[in-house]
Task: inverse folding
């Protein structure tokens, strides 16, 4: 079971990292989502234990570890909030720059800097 | 219950103000008032903790100790919390006085303060992550503040890079829980000593990576200049003076208390990365003319000093790291807030900040550098002392360059900035000078904080 989780985490993190290296803003957001879920799975896997669902009364049986589930739910909520924020930022970039390509963005930035430098020399 | 007060005040005020339009004057001043109250409560707590040497501890929800989530206030935590709130307070006052431009700004700053206070005062590893994300998410939104097109691109990169760091940290937290079976910092620290170093060094690398990104250390710094340059002065002051404290505090707390053996094992690597940051930051800053850019690269260099002191370790090293982090955070807040202003005494305030970065008496920066030299001598390394000297000399050159460029050049006369803005910058400058003239509290805070890490024994 642990090996299965480890493989799943590895695949998720690897794909996320690959997407993070793309210049497209929305691919980057998806990459972050994948990395976030790799972290969530790691959290679940850190306390893998068999048992009843941890709700009182236990009735003699040992419950499974409730802490990892509480942590994972919290992490999922944080991940969702962050995704919403990133999408909003990406959309703002799109409406202000008319592009979601990081290469084009940095190209525009370089042009702007050149303009600034020229102004400075004239002053 | 004093420990809950600063958290509760900022939290309740943040939620309430989020419903109001922050562009109105009175809403902004309400946020300032809430932050003043929280800072005052934290000040009382700091005096109680640093003087009395007792650690205040509250277990949330009335659970027995060991089950519930722990809030605790030790010297290291309260010192960083107080420092961060003072910086945030100065920045918020600055922005409210000069006119808030978006409706969410005061509430976001208060959420950020809640996150910062919480993460410095928590005794639970996972809770640390939650508060840390609360502060960082507010930071991401604030970094886009200003509404100009170029801010959004920089904010996006800032958010993505730091989120990657956060998730690596979360994986490290999961691994910590897996090998120790607890989330309580004090117990994690004890149990880590029994863990196989092959496992624990991986966890330590994850934690180091996460805080290295926050702090903007040399190989992880690439997002930093783009965010600081062009950000509004208040936001830049909050990011570099308060939010960057997370990195310094996290490295001290996790390296000095939880992963002590791993830190000792990787001390050389930590010192080398710190030295690379110092040299890289100073050289880059030297080649820039824009004040924002110089300060951004200077922040990378200054973070390196904290890392070097951490690598030296022991009571002297930890104390130096804490003192330097305090001084650096005040310097950055002062410089970012003073740089765009004009008028009577502003040049002097900026000069105080510049001298403090360079480590010239009678500013607080002198004692920051002094503690670093002590750490270097303690480590018996001539190379380290030479590097510290070189770094100090370079920082003197680049700080003086921007001072000269901004204040000595003949330029068109502009009207002096509003009195409140100048007042905030002058108050920070006075604080930096006061700490340099009467350094006892600063040095005591450093010693006590180092002791609370267990480095004092």
Result:
């Amino acid at each position: 079971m642990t090996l299965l989780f480890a493989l799943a985490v590895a695949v998720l993190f690897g794909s996320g990292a690959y997407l993070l290296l793309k210049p497209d803003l929305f691919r980057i957001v998806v990459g972050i989502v994948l990395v976030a879920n790799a972290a969530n799975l790691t959290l679940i896997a850190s306390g893998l234990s068999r048992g009843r669902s941890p709700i009182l009364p236990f009735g003699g049986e040992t419950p499974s570890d409730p802490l990892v589930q509480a942590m994972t739910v919290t992490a999922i909520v944080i991940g969702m909030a962050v995704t919403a924020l990133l999408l909003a930022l990406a959309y703002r970039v799109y409406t202000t720059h008319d592009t979601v390509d990081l290469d084009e963005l940095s190209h525009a930035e370089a042009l702007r800097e050149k303009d600034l430098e020229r102004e400075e020399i004239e002053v | 219950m004093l420990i809950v007060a600063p958290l509760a005040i900022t939290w309740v005020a943040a939620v309430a103000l989020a419903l109001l339009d922050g562009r109105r004057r009175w809403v902004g001043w309400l946020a300032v008032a809430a932050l003043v109250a929280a800072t005052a409560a934290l000040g009382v707590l700091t005096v109680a903790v640093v003087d009395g040497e007792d650690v205040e501890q509250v277990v949330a929800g009335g659970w027995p100790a060991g089950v519930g989530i722990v809030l605790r206030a030790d010297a290291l935590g309260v010192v960083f919390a107080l420092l961060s709130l003072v910086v945030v307070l100065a920045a918020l006052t600055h922005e409210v006085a000069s006119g808030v431009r978006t409706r969410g700004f005061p509430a976001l700053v208060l959420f950020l303060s809640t996150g910062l206070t919480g993460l410095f005062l928590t005794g639970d590893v996972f809770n640390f992550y939650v508060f840390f994300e609360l502060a960082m998410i507010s930071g991401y939104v604030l970094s886009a503040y200003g509404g100009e097109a170029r801010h959004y691109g920089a904010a996006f990169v800032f958010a993505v890079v730091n989120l990657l760091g956060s998730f690596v940290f979360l994986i490290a937290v999961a691994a910590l829980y897996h090998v120790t079976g607890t989330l309580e910092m004090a117990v994690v620290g004890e149990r880590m000593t029994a863990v196989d170093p092959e496992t624990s060094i991986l966890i330590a690398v994850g934690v180091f990576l996460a805080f290295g990104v926050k702090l903007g250390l040399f190989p992880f710094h690439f997002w930093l200049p783009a965010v600081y340059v062009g950000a509004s002065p208040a936001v830049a002051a909050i990011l570099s003076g308060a939010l960057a404290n997370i990195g310094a505090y996290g490295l001290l707390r996790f390296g000095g208390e939880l992963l002590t053996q791993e830190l000792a094992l990787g001390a050389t690597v930590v010192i080398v990365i710190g030295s690379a940051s110092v040299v890289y930051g100073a050289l880059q800053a030297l080649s820039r003319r824009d004040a924002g850019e110089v300060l951004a690269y200077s922040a990378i260099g200054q973070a390196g000093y904290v890392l070097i002191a951490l690598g030296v370790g022991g009571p002297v090293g930890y104390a130096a790291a804490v003192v330097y982090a305090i001084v650096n955070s005040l310097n950055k807040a002062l410089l970012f807030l003073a740089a765009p202003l004009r008028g009577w005494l502003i040049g002097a305030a900026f000069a105080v900040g510049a001298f403090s970065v360079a480590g010239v008496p009678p500013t607080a920066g002198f004692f920051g550098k002094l503690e670093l030299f002590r750490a270097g001598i303690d480590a018996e390394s001539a190379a380290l002392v030479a590097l510290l000297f070189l770094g100090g000399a370079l920082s003197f050159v680049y700080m003086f360059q921007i001072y000269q460029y901004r204040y000595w050049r003949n330029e068109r006369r502009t009207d002096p900035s509003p009195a409140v803005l100048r007042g905030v910058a002058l108050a920070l400058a006075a604080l930096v000078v006061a700490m340099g003239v009467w350094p006892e509290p600063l040095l005591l805070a450093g010693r006590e904080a180092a002791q609370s890490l267990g480095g004092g024994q």
User: Anything to note?
Assistant: The first helix of chain A runs from residue 2 to 20. The mean pLDDT of chain A is 86.
